[in-house]
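Take a look at the protein record below and flag anything odd:
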Amino acid sequence: MTVPVSEKNFLEKIASYIPGVAGYREREQRRETDRRIRDFLAGRLDEGRAGLTALRNAATESGQLKTLDAIGRLDRHLQKSVSSLRYADYGFSGVFDQMKIREAELDQICAYDAALVTEAVALSDALRALSSAAPDGSALVALTAEAEQLDLKIARRREIFEKPTT
C-alpha cells in the first residue's frame, strides 16, 4: 500500500524527533506509532520537569515564595501531561480496531501529532533554558500557560483517536 504524500510529510516531521515511527496505516503500526510518540513526549516533558529542581532550589534560597508557587503549578501541569501520555491505553483499541480509517482522518491524526511533538519539544527546551537562568515569575507564568494548553491538546489527541467514523 502506498502512503499518501501528506502522511509522508507529517511522518517525516515526527520521525525527525522520534526515530522508528512507522505510520498509521496498519493497525499494529498505529499502536506502535502511538506508543513511540507518547513515550517520546512523556520523556521530553520529564526532561523539562527535571530542570525545575534547579529553579525550585534557587527560588527557595532567595525566599521567592510566589516563584515557588508558580514552579509548583507548572510542575503539576507537566506531571499531569506526563501521566496522561504514559498511562493511557495504546491507541486504536476496542471498537476503533474494527473501523476503517479514511485518508482525511489519518491526515488529521498525523498533523495533530506533528504539532503536538513540536510543541512538547519547544516547551521542554524552554524549561531547560529557564532552569539555567535566575527564577523569573513572568516566564514561569507563560510556561505554565503553555503547559496547560499542551495538557488540553493531549486530552484532545485521545478524543481524535477514539472518535468513531461513519
